[in-house]
Amino acid sequence: MTQTIQRAKKIGGSLMLRIPKDIVELEHIQPGEAIQMEIKKLRKDWFGAFPTLKTFTKEDRLHSRYE
User: Fold this and answer.
1) Residue 63 domain-assigned (yes or no)
2) How confident is the model at residue 1 (pLDDT cuts 50, 70, 90)?
3) How far is CA 45 from CA 12, 17, 39, 49, 61, in A?
4) Rounded to 10 degrees, what is the CA torsion of 32, 34, 35, 37?
5) Is there a domain that residue 54 lies in?
6) What average pLDDT does the segment 3-10 reach?
7) Global confidence as pTM
8) Which of 2, 7, 30, 43 shows the greatest Cβ crowding within 10 Å of its Cβ?
9) Which residue, 10, 5, 13, 2, is CA-closest to 39?
């Protein structure tokens, strides 16, 4: 099984997913051919989203409990 991550695009009232050319060639997919897909939403990774946010110190944690 070959995997790829693609964004859904709205076309009319439907959503469309692309199959990249390299996967089409690797799996020998032809137009009109039936294929099976597994759909899973990806969880957002927030790592690095706030690069300017400083790390919490022990004092910051103590103050936040009592304020």
Assistant:
1) no
2) confident
3) 30, 22, 19, 8, 24
4) 100
5) no
6) 90
7) 0.56
8) 2
9) 5
**CA–CA separation, 19 and 2 (whole Å):** 11
What's residue 48's pLDDT? 67
- Does the residue 26 lie in any domain? yes
Q: Determine the average pLDDT of the residues in 11-36.
A: 94
Domain total of the chain: 1
Higher-pLDDT residue of 42 and 54 is 42
Three-state DSSP state, 55: coil
Residues spanned by the domain of 27:
1-40
Q: How far apart (Å, rounded) are the C-alpha atoms in residues 2 and 50? A: 33
What does the angle CA 29 – CA 42 – CA 49 come to, to the nearest 5 degrees? 130
Quick check: is 31 in a domain? yes
Task: Please report the sign of the dihedral spanned by the C-alpha atoms of residue 24, residue 29, residue 30, residue 35.
Answer: negative
